[in-house]
Design goal:
This protein is an alpha+beta fold. It folds into two domains: 43 residues; 103 residues, Band 7 domain (Tetrahydropterin Synthase, Chain A), CATH 3.30.479.30. The protein is built from four helices and four strands, in the order αβββαααβ. Strands 1, 2, 3 and 4 form a four-stranded antiparallel β-sheet that branches. Helix 2 packs across helix 4. The termini are far apart.
Length: 159
């Protein structure tokens, strides 16, 4: 009889202890979840428009570099525009003539200076000026950067 009482008491203690431990652990996990949810601001799900671009590669630009009235070399640049927010492809295509005109104007302006062409590191200047031109076309703060993806030089009469 004593064995039965001890066995019942032991089962009751173990069951109660297990239940209490589980209850405390679950409450602790819920408290941590709630705390994490409170720390993180409510974010609305971002819908991705499949017709939008965050970066867009342009057709190559061929820019003749002139000195004293003659072409001394042709510079071919492949550029990629990186936007701060996705831009709809149709909008990019619609605005492309103005964009190419603006970028070509900047390229001719930068590359016309003898000082710029005589130094090896012209890319930072070119990127900065092209990004500024892109923001003039798309609107302030829309173009994050204009990246030079490829560049080659060809000297006339050398093939």
């Amino acid at each position: 009889m004593i064995r039965v009482v001890i066995l019942v008491a032991l089962v009751t203690i173990l069951a109660g202890g297990g239940g209490a431990g589980g209850w405390f652990l679950l409450n602790e996990a819920k408290a941590q979840e709630n705390k994490a949810a409170e720390e993180k601001p409510d974010e609305e799900p971002v819908e991705v428009d499949l017709d939008s671009e965050i970066a867009y590669e342009l057709d190559p630009f061929v820019v003749p570099i002139l000195r004293e009235g003659r072409v001394i070399q042709h510079l071919t640049l492949i550029l990629k525009i990186e936007f701060t927010t996705p831009v709809v492809r149709d909008h990019i295509k619609e605005i492309m003539p103005r964009l190419r005109d603006s970028l070509l104007t900047e390229l001719h302006g930068v590359l016309a200076f003898r000082h710029v062409n005589e130094h090896e590191e012209i890319l930072p200047v070119v990127r900065e000026r092209l990004a500024r031109a892109g923001n003039e076309v798309f609107g302030p703060g829309q173009v994050n950067a204009v990246l030079v993806v490829g560049m080659s030089r060809r000297i006339p009469d050398e093939g």
